[in-house]
């Protein structure tokens, strides 16, 4: 392997499994901006949390292919480079695995949203440009998910239209979103193996609204499946994850009524949708006063990244600074029982956590990001550490030489951690084939 001071423009890439990509325009900081109670009182508006997410991952367990890269393997690996993207410098592109392809789409260059894309074919180690995005599909604030390995298509939704891109045929097809989702802020969708589940919230303090719909890729048909929530629990923010056999939705609610100790009434409603059913069932006993954002499923566990307190919980008064509820947890995909992750060696203070959290079934990856500027709108990648779920040990990883500016958050392949930089370089940390 080359040493970590040299990045040869070659190297193998093992890809398998499926990756749920985060919505375009996501911020790399995990911190959630919470409005103070004083601001609520003066403005007369109920608060809405601005959830931010990092790239998220789902890898299937398949016979005959290597398991996900481990923390120990990453700790022994050196950074190398793959061929540079032909799209050139840009920030916030949509990036997704549709085995064996890596798709890069859209993004922003010089303040202008781009509508082109490219595919990296890992089997031949080459990039090629792809058909332009249809004009009916908006890319400003678009959300996406890959449908690998079943159909290997990329689902992209924004505004009133969604599209499916097939990297094998290099063709786009489009579909109108259900009217129930029109005008809503779309939440990053999830792929169940059969359907794409897409949610949206109104973002309105006066008239909060939630809508959820399922898109059956095989027959290109939508069905609205919005869960029933308690009347006095208006959804302010939503997070979703798809496991092997069900979709889990967290609806974070709040209303202006105050408790005797001065807190805003708030909580988290959890609903579960089982495969081949269109009925949501409630799940009890979930912690009520923490933000759930960036949940990631792989193998049999769900990563719940560190989250700040949701209103109504300890330390949530408007006069107090927001605090992280914990250092992150892994939730059993069946029971949602939580196992705390030991504090990352990258933590720099009592209210800070690494900006990026990933999970591949073996390894939790945490990474710091700093140096935000006009030249690096998503910041520069700093220190990295990997937590081995089975040994309970953190490993500090080699830093990328030069601290490159990020185009988007890093993401896992089967045997690699990948980084797409602002200038179009594709770097990897992991094993050779």
Task: Detail the topology: elements first, then pairings.
Layout: H1 37-43, H2 71-76, E1 79-82, E2 94-98, E3 101-105, E4 108-109, E5 112-113, E6 117-121, E7 126-129, E8 143-146, E9 154-158, E10 161-166, E11 171-176, E12 185-191, E13 195-201, E14 210-216, E15 221-224, E16 235-242, E17 246-258, E18 264-274, E19 280-283, E20 296-298, E21 301-304, E22 329-332, E23 338-340, E24 356-359, E25 363-370, E26 380-388, E27 393-396, E28 411-412, E29 416-420, E30 426-430
Antiparallel strand pairs: 1-30, 2-3, 3-6, 4-5, 6-7, 8-9, 9-10, 10-11, 12-13, 13-14, 14-15, 16-17, 17-18, 18-19, 20-21, 21-22, 22-23, 24-25, 25-26, 26-27, 28-29, 29-30
Explain the overall architecture.
With about 425 residues, this protein is mostly beta strands. It has a domain at about 35-240 and about 355-430: Neuraminidase, CATH 2.120.10. The protein is built from two helices and 30 strands. It has helices spanning about 35-45, 70-75; strands spanning about 80, 95-100, 100-105, 110, 110-115, 115-120, 125-130, 145, 155-160, 160-165, 170-175, 185-190, 195-200, 210-215, 220-225, 235-240, 245-260, 265-275, 280-285, 295-300, 300-305, 330, 340, 355-360, 365-370, 380-390, 395, 410, 415-420, 425-430. The strands form eight sheets. A four-stranded antiparallel β-sheet has the order 1-30-29-28. A four-stranded antiparallel β-sheet has the order 2-3-6-7, with no helix packed on it. Strand 28 (about 410) and strand 29 (about 415-420) form a beta hairpin. The chain is globular.
